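Example 253, ligand NAP.
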Amino acid sequence: MQSNPFSLDGMSILVTGASSGIGREVAVWLSRQGARIVAVARDAQRLEETLSQLHGEGHSVEVFDFLGGSDVSAWLKALSRNGSPFDGLVHAAGVQLPLPIRAMGLDHWETIFATNVTSGFSLIKAFRQKGVCRNPSSIVMLSSVMAQVAQPALIGYCASKGAVESMVRAAALELAREGIRVNAIAPGVIKTEMAQKLEGLVGEDAMAAIERKHPLGLGHPLDVAYAVNYLLSPAARWVTGTSLVVDGGYLAE
Ligand SMILES: NC(=O)c1ccc[n+]([C@@H]2O[C@H](COP(=O)([O-])OP(=O)(O)OC[C@H]3O[C@@H](n4cnc5c(N)ncnc54)[C@H](OP(=O)(O)O)[C@@H]3O)[C@@H](O)[C@H]2O)c1
């Protein structure tokens, strides 16, 4: 038995959405636990800010746009050839685009699904390639409590997170024999840019009402990072195909 089954020491982890919010905090926390991070997003400058906050050596940044049409499998294959195979993947890139149904066009819907769902499928497919991941390894996808409940103006987002959780279950069944565990984390509202944008749309009073629905108050990106740590670590070796709710009690009501 390992002396600390929660340790990530020496692991190589790809983190998407690492230029902001949850992805950035996850990257920083995992680096503090001894992991080597490849931090992915579109904004090179914000990725460099993340890089400057990482602890230890050997980290790198990768500018990649999941809406850009590039081949995710070829990209991950090249990344692992230049570095070492990955022990983990955390997919925190995502968009919310809150819009009432009357204002939501098919283009908005497709942007949400391409960023939140199709990117996840492409990453899972790419990650399982020979030489890209180790056996055992672990994939963590960011879902949301909105996979289970809803709010007005979030039809696309809610549907996309429901799809993420279904995809995680299907991938977990298929990839178990390859030693790859696949799980989701479903946060309540976490104080990030995404939550700020939501407040900008719904207003302070509505946001205060949303906050009151969280018995423990709104979350911090670090609350999600701790859960990611667990799912990536050997301590979660018998956990796959599930979604871990981290929501300050939001769904308990
Ligand atoms: N904050 C919350 O309350 C909350 C609650 C539940 C679930 N979540 C989920 O947690 C994840 C992270 O959310 P967050 O709050 O940290 O959001 P955020 O601060 O808005 O960050 C989103 C990240 O996604 C990246 N991204 C967006 N579109 C991309 C694209 N086309 N290609 C590559 N990267 C892209 C952004 O980077 P660039 O702009 O640099 O590309 C950024 O790093 C999302 O999946 C979100 O749905 C958040």
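Summary: The chain has one domain: 12-187+220-243.
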